[in-house]
Amino acid sequence: MNQCVIVGRVKEIPEVRKTAKGKLLTNLILESDRNFRDEDGNYSSDLFNVTVWRGEAETAANLCKPGSMIAVRGRLSGKLVQKEDREFYFCEIVAESIDYLRGLTAA
To answer: pLDDT value at position 97?
Structure first.
């Protein structure tokens, strides 16, 4: 089973793009707070790459602004990427659904 749910704030303005085959997609960077303090007593956060496809991509691009709170349900997608004679693993969340959390604002 490959499922994840992340709640967080959108970091950048998303833009809709089309693939070579005409499919719509949007990429989001989602900042999610950790639920524990670091050694200095501060809460830190994690950043996640989220890919949104098709009709939901347009909706996300229209509704998401920096600081917007959303909940993403999806799956993790990992790839081995080669760049300049180096290999590294890239992981992203492929969104299956997004809930736009109204009434919540960025801290």
So the answer is: 95
